Amino acid sequence: MMDTRAQTGLPFMKMHGAGNDFVVIDSRGRGAVMTAALAQALGDRNRGVGFDQLAEITDSDQADFGLVFWNSDGSQAGACGNATRCVADHVMRGLGADRVSLVTARGGLRAERAADGRIWVNMGPPQLNWTAIPLAREVDHLHLPLPGDPVAVGMGNPHCVHFVPDAEAVDLATLGPRIEHDPLFPQRTNVEFASLISPGRIRMRVWERGTGITLACGSGACAVAVAAHLRGMTGRRVALTVDGGELEVDWRADGVWLTGPVARVFDGMLSPDYLAAYR
Fold first, then answer.
1. Based on CB atoms within 10 Å of each CB, which residue in 114, 235, 247, 275 is the most buried?
2. How many angstroms separate the CA atoms of 66 and 27, rounded?
3. All residues at 6 or more sequence positions from 128 whose CB lies less than 8 Å from its CB, including other chains
4. How far is 204 from 198, CA to CA, in rounded Å?
5. Phi first, then psi: what are they for 98, rounded to 5°?
6. What are the beta bridge partners of residue 15?
7. How confident is the model at residue 217 (pLDDT cuts 50, 70, 90)?
8. Spatial CB neighbours of 30, under 8 Å, sequence gap ≥ 6
9. How many angstroms separate the CA atoms of 158 and 112, rounded?
10. 3-state DSSP of 21-73
11. Angle at 187 between CA 185 and CA 191, to 5 degrees
12. Angle at 189 between CA 186 and CA 190, to 5 degrees
């Protein structure tokens, strides 16, 4: 069968949430179009489009839509809170709705538009059992046997949260990849360094597995908020200052809710020749 996708090109959107930037491809009605090779090629900021994550919108018979996330190295991510908020805003506008349901590798989630226009997404309950995070062996997830006494939290992705006096002073480019590949994390891990500014505010910097340093990370913000509350540092609602702006997390009875800015930057079209090279 002839590949009409490669003949006609493929539309995409470029979006970001607090500087956490995404390529969004809508595969509804056409079948999944992404491959690891295409995701990796598109993630190249010199030869592709460039992104922290790619979000592919898919058909779902369980919800309004499905989402599949890809890192810039071609690997898949289990969750991406900021991309979920961006896509939810796009889908809500298309449906003329203020709430939507969606399915990711994490399971069923939902998003809502608040009265102030912000998009909140319920990222589900945190994963705190060592097998669910996951960790390679049973240890105290609130005090991992690693330098810096970090906390492990699963939010669809594994996270290793370090509380430090000054997040700005951390050599994230060196420590991030080293911790990402620590044997304690069989699926690698996202790495966060966080400083408590006040009981209601945290400064956070992040290294994302499969991508590197990013300006924000939604699931990481959720993990930091959960870890801070479990350590007795904050309440269940906290604002997080990240390199790209500000996010807010509210750990409610039904899950960890995330909000922050949403921006649709531009729409584009991947050329037939480009697509043909990565079929």
1. 247
2. 10
3. 141, 153, 154
4. 13
5. -110, 0
6. 22, 264
7. very high
8. 5
9. 25
10. EEEEEECCCCCCCCCHHHHHHHHCCCCCCCCCEEEEEECCCCCCEEEEEEECC
11. 60
12. 175
Residues 234, 229: Cα–Cα separation, whole Å? 5
pTM of model > 0.85: yes
- The tens digit of pLDDT for each residue in 103-132 reads 999 899 999 999 999 999 999 999 999 999
Give the span between the Cα atoms of 87 and 93, in whole angstroms: 10
As to burial, measured by CB atoms within 10 angstroms (0-12 exposed, 13-18 middle, 19+ buried), residue 230 is middle
Say whether pLDDT at 5 is over 50: no
What is the radius of gyration, based on Cα positions, of the chain? 18
Beta-carbon-side half-sphere exposure of residue 42 (alpha carbons within 13 Å): 34
DSSP 212-232: EEES--HHHHHHHHHHHHHTT
Catalytic residues: 80, 217
pLDDT tens, position by position, 128-180: 999 999 999 999 999 999 999 999 999 999 999 999 999 999 999 999 999 99
Q: Which residue has the tokens 């919800």?
A: 63
- Name the 3-class secondary structure at 6: helix
